[in-house]
Known about the structure:
Elements: H1 2-31, E1 37-49, H2 51-54, H3 58-61, E2 69-79, E3 84-87, H4 93-98, H5 107-112, E4 123-125, H6 131-134, E5 144-148, H7 149-158, H8 163-167, H9 173-184, E6 188-191, E7 195-198, E8 201-205, E9 214-218, E10 225-227, H10 235-239, H11 251-263, E11 267-269, H12 276-279, E12 281-284, E13 287-291
Parallel strand pairs: 3-4, 4-5, 5-6, 10-11
Antiparallel strand pairs: 1-2, 1-13, 2-3, 7-8, 8-9, 9-10, 12-13
This protein binds zinc ion.
The site of zinc ion (ZN) has 6 residues, from helix 6.
Amino acid sequence: MKSSKRLARVFLVLAVVGLVVLPLAAIAAEQQPIAKSVYAVMAGDLPPMTSNSAFWQGARFFPEIKERIRVPMFYYLIKTDKQNILVDCGLNPQSAAERKIANYSPPDVMLGKLGLKVSDIDTIILTHGHWDHADGLEVFPKAKIYIQRNCYRWMVEGGPEFPLFRKYNYPSKKMSLAMLTLMWDGRLKLVDGDAELFPGIKVIEIGGHHQGLQSIVIETKDKPIILTGDTVYSYANLEKDHPIGLLQGDLVDVVKGVERMRALNGVLVPAHDEKVLERFKPVDKNIVQLYP
Ligand SMILES: [Zn+2]
């Protein structure tokens, strides 16, 4: 009798563990941030910009800034146990040559320094559709691309509808057609507003600089890493508490977006500041480790 009661108790405990504890543990494991490491890679330099581009009405508010400001372009690698995710994707070699990009480094060379081939990239999260962030798409044949629906709509419809924007190729026709091709190839994933794309890897829709621009929040064991996209060009935008220039959307969206990102109490990484290469751990020339 006694032993059968004991046996029943053992079964009860096993059932509780099986039905309650293990599923909870599985959920907890799933909710663990998955980013193992995060890198920033410099793609090359845009032509230096004026204070009016760097800061909203910069010449008026900062007349002391006379010199043009260097504008390095960055993209980012998030490594997880299962995935290699890029945020933005640099430039392909042909357009870098056509545009005479200074200090250009091709994605295959830079990712090679991090032990990866371009075909190892599964996912690209685009902050927005400007060529200095998205031109390298064709270098990555297998990746699924995540952008905001509002970003896509601007690129394929909202922009090209107007003669003014067609005249200045803004958004670029090449990027616009690339979006449609990716859609027909089943590789484009449209995101509607704020979302957690993967455990601990979130996007927040900000707009402002570009319709449907999204910033990326990467949860870590420490503070979150926040890839601002072009909502913040440089540390100076944060330190002077002054928004960027060069807006094709709403200035208020930029200001709200910066407030939202600051409230997350994370590490904000500006999109075009050479100091990113100084403030984080160097891995190779023009590559720094943002985490761990
Ligand atoms: Zn940019």
